[in-house]
Each structure stands twice: as C-alpha cells, then as structure tokens.
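Quick one, tokens below. Sequence please?
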C-alpha cells in the first residue's frame, strides 16, 4: 500500500545529496507487516531452484545431527553425575562449617563470661585501693561511660524485619535504623543504652559488615531490642521524635511493615560494656592518714 496517510506515517523521507527523494521503511512497521525473516524466503527459493538434496547428503546431515545430540547427552550426563557425586561432600562441608560456627560462638560466649568476671575482679581490687569518696565518684563515671552494670526504669524499643525483607530493602532493619533509634533515645535523656544486650559507650560503633549488623565487634541478629534507662518522660520524648515518626510510617506501610514497638519497663538491667584498652593510669598515693587519696584514680580510653 502506498500513497495513503498510513503509508506516509510509516515511512520517513530523506533527501540524498543528489536531491532525489528516497522513502525509507520504518523498521518497526516493516516487522509487523512482514514478520518472516527474508533469509527463510531466500532459502525456500534456493531449495526450489536446486531441488531436493541427494540421499547421501541427507543421511550425512542426519548422521552429524545424531552424533552432535549424543555428544551433548554424554556431556550432560557427566556433568549431572559430577554434581550428584559432589553433593555429599558439599553437605558434609556445610555441616562441618555450621558446627565450627557453633563451637566458636560457644567459645566466644565463654570468653565474654571470663572477661566479665575479670572485669568485676579488677573493679573490686581497684575499689579496695580507694576511699569511699573516690569509689562513689568512680562508680558514677563508670556508669556514665558504660563500663559498669546499671539498673533502673526505662524504655525498650523493638525493631523487626518486615515480611518482604528478602526483596524490599526498606523492609529490613539496617545499622542506620539502630543508629537513629539510639541517637533519638540519647536526645530524649537516656543515661545508658544497650542493643541486644550489648552496652553502648561513646566509642561503640553500630555498623554493617556484609549482611550482618555489628555492635562493636559483636554480631547481632533480629529482632533488635534497644533498651535505655533514663528519666520518666523519656518515652514521651522519644515518641515525639522524627525517628519514631519515621518508623511508625514504615510499620503502617503495607509495602514494608517493619516491626516497631515502644514499651516502658521497670527495673531494667543493662550489662557493662567490655572494658576499653587501658591507655594510662596512676598509682594512688597514700594520704597522711594512711588511706589512698581521693584525687587519684585510674584512667582509661578506647581506641
């Protein structure tokens, strides 16, 4: 069809240097009008002109086809047998890796308990070298810096991954989310915070390593429980924060449905953080009365 409006719409006009108008067929329109590739038409015409292949040529082609199919079948069979043969070895390796992870996790827990016991012993011996005034001041500083166990009333914020966490990034709880919650709790007046039982200090990072969230060097998994001890109005201040509003929106959005819950709790107990590496210290000097002076106390810092 030519000359009509549809024909003009389906074509583009180009003017060569000679001035002659050339009509170029639009490829998409030509594809819909004649979907069969031109090579098939040429091959059919050549076959008609040449006539049928001699029987020997036909049998040769069929023989090559059969041989190629057999070779492909052999390769697939060998590959399948290798996969099946290696499956028990992979399963055994996976089982051993799981056992090794569990064993190392148990060793880490034991080392944590040992470190906590040694830390309590260090605190006891240090308090023996100080008078009551210095002990009281030291306990206040340790509680504020996170290296002493504390108890009190506070708030527990629980975050959980949404049902679409596997495919939707915003449905997963990220390290940034825990940072937002802890910063909002500090701003609301929190005096001590722990995440999944890991006490935070001024040098404790909350970060991502691969697909895991780390509190310091400890790997934690959901649900994520952020416990904070602070004043009685801390829960109200936290609920009024922008972070809480953001998580409520994620919780109510059907695309994400991130778990978010805020509970006020009585008699929370937050563990002590791992003692940071000691950087410098001074030996207490005895006072004239024979007891250590209150002005001298050990000092530490973290790297």
């Amino acid at each position: 069809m030519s000359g009509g409006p549809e024909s003009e719409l389906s074509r583009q006009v180009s003017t060569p240097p000679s001035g002659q108008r050339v009509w170029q067929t639009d490829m998409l329109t030509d594809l819909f009008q004649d979907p069969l590739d031109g090579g098939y038409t040429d091959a059919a015409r050549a076959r008609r002109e040449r006539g049928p292949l001699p029987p020997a040529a036909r049998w040769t082609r069929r023989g090559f086809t059969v041989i190629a199919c057999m070779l492909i079948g052999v390769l697939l069979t060998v590959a399948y047998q290798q996969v099946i043969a290696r499956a028990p070895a992979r399963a055994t390796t996976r089982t051993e890796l799981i056992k090794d992870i569990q064993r190392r996790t148990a060793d880490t827990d034991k080392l944590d308990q040992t470190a906590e016991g040694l830390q309590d012993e260090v605190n006891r011996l240090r308090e023996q070298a100080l008078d009551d005034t210095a002990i009281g001041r030291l306990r206040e500083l340790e509680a504020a810096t996170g290296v002493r166990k504390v108890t009190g009333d506070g708030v527990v914020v629980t975050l959980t991954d949404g049902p679409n966490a596997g495919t939707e990034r915003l449905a997963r709880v990220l390290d940034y989310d825990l940072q937002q919650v802890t910063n909002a709790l500090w701003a609301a007046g929190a005096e001590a915070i722990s995440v999944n039982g890991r006490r935070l200090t001024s040098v404790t990072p909350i970060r991502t390593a691969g697909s895991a969230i780390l509190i310091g060097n400890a790997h934690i998994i959901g649900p994520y429980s952020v416990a904070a001890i602070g004043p009685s109005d801390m829960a109200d201040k936290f609920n009024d924060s922008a972070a809480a509003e953001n998580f409520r929106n994620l919780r109510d959005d059907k695309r994400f449905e991130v778990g978010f819950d805020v509970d006020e709790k009585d008699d929370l107990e937050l563990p002590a953080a791992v003692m940071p590496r000691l950087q410098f210290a001074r030996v207490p000097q005895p006072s004239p009365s024979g007891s250590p002076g209150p002005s001298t106390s050990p000092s530490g810092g973290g790297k």
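DSSP finds eight helices and ten strands in the chain. The longest helix spans residues 55-128.
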